[in-house]
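User: I'll paste a sequence; please echo it back and then give the predicted structure.

Assistant: Echoing your sequence first, then the prediction.
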Amino acid sequence: MVSYGHYLDVVPNLKLELAAGRSEIVVTGVEESVLYTVYVGPTNDRRYGFWQGRPKPNEQIEVTLERGGSILGRVTAPTGLTTSGAEVLLRNAMGVEVVVPVEADGSFERWGIQSQVLWHAEARAKDAAGNQFKSATEHVWVGSEVNLKLQPVRR
């Protein structure tokens, strides 16, 4: 998975290409004076890569993949709502977002994510009628455990 952040906005013309088995990324469609964040991962072998800078158009940048840590936790739901289909959104201040599926027993774990940054965790789900539920946002460090309680979203 390759994701990107431009502060916290989506950049419509940004294109990233990652060759299989390599760690070079070709960046096109950038504005030269803008600060970009590139996040690669988490990979199946529990690694991630992070790069931040102001690339020139068509510049090839190198993203070093390194072993990441994990965040685990539990999502609880109100009576009548199951955690099947729920997900946890992990987000950091650099705009990186990682979506983690929640198991039927409410547990979740994401490994291979960037250490030494504070992550924000929020659970979200829908019931069979389409009603939305979400938890309060909790702050969590890699290597920690977090508990998230789903509540109905007030309209």
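The two ends are 34 Å apart (CA to CA). The chain has two domains: 2-67, 69-152.
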